[in-house]
Amino acid sequence: MVQSLLQNKRRVRFIAILWTLLIFLLCLIPGRDIPDVHIPLIDKWVHFVLFGLFSLLWLLSFEKKSSLIALAVFAASILVGWCVELLQGQLSFLGRSYDPRDILADGIGGFLGVVLFMVWHRNEK
C-alpha cells in the first residue's frame, strides 16, 4: 500500500506540501501552548525528524532522481528551517526565539533524509 502511494508523484508532492505547511504551523505555535517536556534536547530531535521527513517526501515527489535535485532539497531544508527561525525571532508575540542550533538540527535531519532516500533508491535498482 505504501509503495503504491509513493508511486503517485502528484499525491506525494501534495503530501510534501502539506508537510511543509505543518512544519511552519508547528514551529509557529506560541511558546506558552507547547507542553513542557523534560527530555534533553527534545526540540532538536523534533526539528531533526520534521526536516528528515521533509527531505524524504520532497525527493520522493520528483520523477527524476539526480544529485542536483538531492542537493536542492537539502538546501531547501536549511532554507525553510532558517525562515522558521527568522519568523520565531521576529514575531515576539509568539514567545519563541531564534535559535541557530535548530537550523543545525534541521540541516542534519534534511541531510539524513537525503541519505536515506539515496540508499533506498539505490536498493530499488
Structure overview:
It is elongated and about 45 Å long. It has helices at 2-7, 9-27, 42-60, 67-90, 100-124. The chain is mostly helical and 125 residues long. It has one domain (2-124). The model has no long low-confidence stretch (mean pLDDT 91). It has 5 helices and no strands.
The H-and-E topology, N to C, reads as: HHHHH
Percent of residues in helices comes to over 70%
Main sheet record: none
Rg of Cα set: 15 Å
**On the 0-100 scale, what is the average pLDDT?**
91
Structural class: mainly alpha
Rough outline: elongated
Unreliable residue runs: none
Work out the count of structural domains.
Answer: 1
H/I helix tally: 5
Which features would summarize this protein structure in a list?
mainly alpha
Q: Would you kindly provide a brief summary of this structure?
A:
The protein is mostly helical and 125 residues long.
Task: Give the secondary structure arrangement, pairings included.
Layout (H helix, E strand, L loop, with lengths): L1 H6 L1 H19 L14 H19 L6 H24 L9 H25 L1
Helix pairs in contact: 2-3, 2-4, 3-4, 3-5, 4-5
